Amino acid sequence: MRAVLQRVTSARVVVEKEVVGAIGRGILALIGVAGDDAEADAAYIAGKIADLRLFAPDNGDEEGAAERSLAEIGGSALVVSQFTLLGDARKGRRPSWSQAAPPDEAQRLYARVVTLLRERGIPTETGTFRAHMDVELSNDGPITILLDSKRLF
Fold it and tell me: Is the pTM for the entire model greater than 0.85?
């Protein structure tokens, strides 16, 4: 499973001119599910979204390294499915999507990430699976982190 995490001051997803998910301070997580992903991959990604220390202390001192997690600041997550994170563009001019999971399995594991975040008490909004979405965000920092559950070592 791959994810792109962006620290945001706000983010929202619009589908057919309707806001389907929106957050304030928190993390926008774009999630791509691979064909060989399993429950452990969803748990790894959800744990990283909740626990990575990407936020500065509340005292406003931005000089030091980020020291607080999403869970610690009481922030929210906006989780958006994005199968294109599994695109392979190494050959030719057209990306291959062959590494992406079939839609039903991808949706199940994507939903598992959302469920795990909510079980941890993280307010979590979503996009609409398999829909054309307009994702709007105010990237804070900017801070953007790439995750891949298959590259743990």
Answer: yes
Contact 101, 34 (CB under 8 A): yes
Instruction: Identify whether 129 is a catalytic site residue.
Output: no
Q: What band does 151 get if pLDDT is binned at 50, 70 and 90?
A: confident
Please say if 153 is a catalytic residue.
no
Q: Which of 6, 9, 55, 82 is catalytic?
A: 82
Catalytic residue among 6, 55, 83, 124: 83
Q: What's the pLDDT tens digit per position in 118-136?
A: 999 999 999 999 999 999 9
Write down all domains in the chain, each with its CATH number in brackets: 2-148 (3.50.80.10)
Residues 6+ apart with CB under 8 A from 102: 35
Question: Three-state SS for 137?
Answer: strand
Question: Which of 84, 107, 115, 126 does the annotation list as catalytic?
Answer: 84
Residue corresponding to tokens 């998910």: 21
Catalytic-residue membership of 9: no
The rounded distance, in Å, linking the Cα atoms of 132 and 151 is 29
